[in-house]
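The passage that follows is intended for readers who have already worked through the single-chain material. We present the inputs for a multi-component assembly, then the predicted structure in tokenized form, and finally a short commentary. You are encouraged to pause after the input and sketch how you expect the pieces to fit together before reading on.
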Amino acid sequence: MIGYRMPTRAHIAPGCRSRLPEVTTSLGIERALLVVDPGLLATRRPEEIEGILTGGRVRVERFSEVDPNPRTQTATRIGELMRASDLQAVIALGGGSVLDAAKAGAMLATNPGTPEQYEGPNLYEHRPKPMIAIPTTCGTGSEVTWVSVLSHPESRRKISVKGETMFPDQALVDADLIRTLPASLVAWTGLDALTHALEATTCTLANPVSDALAERAITLLFRFLERAATDTSDDAQAREAVMRASTVAGLSFSNADVAGVHCLSESIGGLFDVPHGLANAILLEPLLRYHRPFVDPRLAELELLVHRSTDEAQPISERAERFLDRLGDLTRRLETPPFSSFSIPADEYPLIAEQAVRNGSNSSNPQPMAAENYLEVLAGLG
Ligand SMILES: [Fe+2]
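Having made your guess, compare it with the prediction:
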């Protein structure tokens, strides 16, 4: 049992990026590395954030070479750059890849070696450099978590580096920043957030606080994700709702865990470099169905709470089925492609299953999951 904790000071409001100078001043930052999502380079966002920082008397260097599934080597380079230029803090502007690479980089700036040496919880010695996280997608939750997930190409695995002092010091969650996010990325990252909340509330480490946070995130996402994915630029209400849901879902799983969906998607991501949010979007409903009847009581409760169903007399299994049908409908309406779109050969399934079992979150599944269980799930995906 983790026990609820939330060391990150999170600002959650449209326009809150303007508070950056107050934040850097409060942390005593005068020289910082801005790690930027390459997807933002076509926009004016990096320059805008640099302008805000410079106005707050912070000298900024920029690093924008972050890969979509960030490699361990990328985090190592960030750490080296921070040491070489004597930078005091890292400011991460981007999606989960950027936040995770920067988070591990901040740890490596004060600890020798490479991320592989620190796979697992609390294995480093020195406190990481301060970090400010500014997410630009509505899915990662990394701005309020202690974990950095990195690809290790040599072993074709994803590794998790985490620690009680790896939470970002501050997070600026500004819904304005997803205004120009393509519809498909709103959908896939939003479904990643929904996965975080649903896995948090059905896993073995679920607790009263993580459940309350998950319920809020799930409600917001069912109500607003489709609208946000249809029109992010002119629908401020939907934009703010999904951005808020993403961070609230991050708080939820950060204080519980994720489970089989992430075990499989991280395995597949490490082997085949597929987008994390999309993999989760595809796997979420099949995994939850596989976990029946272990998750039925919770899904039946969510059907009442989230969808305000009034038929409490309906059997638990029927209410859970209704919830899963709604989840499947939402996923399809968001034009999630089928698993076959990844073109993964079936003879790779045993390796995928084996790596999923080795994932640190495997023991949090609602039912014990061995390689043969994951193989059954994969076989059912067509
Ligand atoms: Fe995720």
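Commentary: The first strand starts at residue 9 and ends at 12. The chain has 13 helices and nine strands. How closely did your sketch match?
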